[in-house]
Amino acid sequence: MVLIGIALSQATVIERARAQNSPPPSFVPGELIIGYKSSDDRDQAVREKTATQEKMRVRGAVPTELEIQKVGESAVKVRITFPKSVQENTRAGSPSELSLLQEIAKQLKEKDPRIDSVQLNWIRRINPPKPATAIQKDTLPELQNLKSIEEGSTNEPNDPYFPLQWHYQALPKGMNAVGAWRSNVKGSRDIVVAVLDTGIVNHEDINGAGNILLGYNFVTASDPCTLQATKIGPGAADTGDTCSEPPEGHWHGTHVAGTIGAVGSNNGRGLAGVAWYVKILPVRVLSQGSGTDGDIINAMLWAAGLPVDGAPINQNPADIINMSLGSTSVWGGQFHECNEETANEYIKAIRAIRKKGAVIVASAGNGETLDQNNERCTEDPQNQQCKFVQVDVKNAVPAGCPGVISVASSDARGRLAWYSNYGAVTIMAPGGDSGQTEEFIIGGKKYKLPLGVWSSVKGKPGLIPYDVLNGTSQAAPHVSGAIALALAAHQDWRHRPDLIEQKLRASAVAPPQGGCPRAKPCGPGQLDAALLVGTQSGARQ
């Protein structure tokens, strides 16, 4: 497929950016998302494809090809091919193409009264923060010989690596899942949490739990290894981030799902999840750590049980949708808040999902690396103008959009993590800092290990299939897991997203003094799962 500029897939453009040590593109080359005022208007416009193509004129040129795909309730994703006269002056994914697409968007909206918004098909990422020191995985193989430990009480999981999970302990260190468990609040199998992420892998601690529903793939970008077009369809397998055999990856979706409750808690193996009993619905929206607005919006609606073009109705609609992904809306040297002008189709989808009764939980984001002109850049010792900055969550999508439970990240001291976005977030939860370490006692032996969040990943030969990641991606699933516990304890909270957000804010605990600087507020405070579910075990250590 020839896009504006050159014949490259989204994945190829990103790979070339990495090879050239330049920031990857923030939008899909050649694509726009056009939102209509109603589904009838959208359907009529699809039938008028030729007329729409004729309305697109830039620098005197008319598109040579136009592909249209339905997105959300009343929008379309349009992929445009322009003549060589335009392509010669436009590089795929560049600022020049950004200006070109914005020019087209403006013209379309002016010419068609049925259109209420036209936006680029922005790319959203997991954007993991760099740890202060590298995690030495070769310190872990000795732990793989630990098969089991003495069974604890029924309210303390007997999973052998549970002692590593500092993030479940009492505040200010953790989010006090242990307090909820001690009051016998451990979840329910009729609560469904959709995990919109990289998908999930076969895993020894997950396969036997019996709580993973058949997911769905919504990634439509071409496969970076085969270069073949990817189609949406059943299944949500994480295929990794590389084309090697076996593939390498962060296994981000498996890590996130494990924290919520995908792993088998109290099964004498591995580690534990926040909710011991819960159904996980994996929904693949990210490939090589990034996904597009068009795919993500469709996946959100499908996860909630709403109709999506080209997919069957989800028979297991989610009570909670976890989105450990997103990006800051920054272009043209300016930050842009999430509103109808910048992210209208997200806002429409969020409203529809909340009306259906589902809760959306999203990571606040892990900052940005920007130059002096507020343009994305790649950190380089030779470039002193390129610096990491934390960002106000109001400029993040989807976390900054109205109706989303946004989650900032705390470290093991209960302080806003160095990488976390800040602002009027809904809650702060443990996301960890892998640059900090602590001594843990496992099976009677001491290990000095990173204070990131411990969860499940795809195993490698000689290594256990568990690892630490840190980020607001790791903070969000703690909140989703805690809400799953609360819904199990309070059936009357189900399908009431406003009430759930209210309860989260009301049960938040103020962080330690200085934990959230005045210039970087973190909402009402830290998540306390025991206080949220209404037990009497919400005290600090």
Give your account of this protein's structure:
This protein is α/β, with parallel strands linked by helices and 541 residues long. The protein folds into 2 domains: 10-125, Alpha-Beta Plaits, CATH 3.30.70; 165-365 and 396-533, Peptidase S8/S53 domain (Rossmann fold), CATH 3.40.50. Helices cover 24% and strands 22% of the residues. It has helices spanning 10-19, 39-47, 49-55, 84-87, 95-111, 177-182, 204-207, 252-262, 293-303, 340-356, 472-489, 497-507, 529-533, and strands at residues 27-36, 65-71, 75-81, 115-125, 187-197, 216-217, 233-234, 277-284, 290-292, 320-323, 327-328, 330-331, 334-335, 359-363, 368-370, 387-389, 396-397, 405-410, 427-430, 433-442, 445-451, 453-456, 466-469. It has an 8-stranded mixed beta sheet, with helices on both faces. Strands 2-3-1-4-9 form a 5-stranded antiparallel beta sheet. The longest helix has 18 residues, at 472-489. The protein is globular and about 75 Å long. The N and C termini lie far apart (59 Å). Mean pLDDT is 88; it is low at 1-21, 148-152 and 536-541.
